[in-house]
Amino acid sequence: MESIEKDYMQYKWFFTSSGKLVVGGKSASQNDALLQRVKSQQHEYIIMHTQAPGSPFSVIIARPEEVTNSDLQETAIFTGCFSKAWKLGKKKAIIHVFRAAQLRKTESMKTGTWGLHGKIQRTTSELKLVLTRQKKILRAVPETTVKNKKEIILHIMPGKIDKSAILPKIAIETKMNFNKEELLSALPAGGIKISN
User: Fold this and answer.
1) What are phi and psi of 24, to 5 degrees?
2) Burial class of residue 143 in the structure, from the number of CB atoms within 10 Å of its CB (0-12 exposed, 13-18 middle, 19+ buried)
3) Burial (0-12, 13-18, 19+ Cβ within 10 Å), 122
4) Is the pLDDT of residue 29 over 80?
5) Is the distance from CB of 94 to CB of 83 less than 8 angstroms?
6) Alpha carbons 75 and 49: distance in angstroms, whole number
7) pLDDT one-digit tens code per residue, 50-102
8) I want to staple 183 with a disulfide (CB 3.0 to 4.6 A). Which of 5, 66, 110, 178 is the partner?
């Protein structure tokens, strides 16, 4: 089985400020496939999911001892922003932080659902992102991942305007033309508000 780094673009993804790759499932079935892949490769990765259902399982592709506090904070923000919490227009989300070894799956569990055992850390993240480019591809990422603030295209947060309806407004705000598919793929599901 290929390493996740080789085909990370099939997932939701971003790079933290220290350069760590983070990937998350785009759907319940992709979450399942991702976690089964992590478990089969027996990597002891740090993984996050919102306390409430409806979020990607976000995996930091690095040894736990190499993961910094900023990696953890940025991954928590990413996990919260690409969860149902954003769709519901919340300002914050509670995130569970755990290791791959704590995950278990039984046949009776529905797609995308996993059990956890052992101690789980909890953190709260604000739901705010910036649009920028990573690996020349448009991404919505936590602001602290962008070292050069000139590379920030736009600040966004949960709002009332559907993401497909906000595209013209984004073009006016940024004075840039985006590929519609690339922009829709970068943004979280649900309403968007352009913030300062």
Assistant:
1) -145, 150
2) middle
3) exposed
4) yes
5) no
6) 10
7) 999 999 999 999 999 999 999 999 999 999 999 999 999 999 999 999 998 88
8) 178
Cα separations in angstroms, 153 against 41, 131, 136, 157, 161: 37, 5, 13, 14, 19
* 21 neighbors 15 (Cβ within 8 angstroms): yes
- With residues binned 3-state (H G I as helix, E B as strand, rest as coil), the percentages for the chain, rounded to 5, are 35, 30, 35
Instruction: For 135, list phi and psi in degrees, rounded to 5.
Output: 55, 35
Beta strands in 58-162 (DSSP E): 58-61, 92-99, 103-104, 115-116, 121-126, 129-134, 137-141, 154-162
Res 43: pLDDT: 82
Average pLDDT for the chain? 92
pLDDT at 71: 98
CA atoms of 4 and 182, how far apart (whole Å) = 21
**In this structure, are residues 182 and 138 in contact, taking their beta carbons and an 8 Å threshold?**
yes
In angstroms, the CA 153 to CA 162 distance is 19
Note the pLDDT of residue 2.
67
**8, 12, 51, 102 from 134: Cα distances, Å:** 13, 13, 28, 31
| Mean pLDDT to the nearest integer, 133-141 | 96
**Which DSSP helix (H) or strand (E) runs through 192?**
strand 191-195
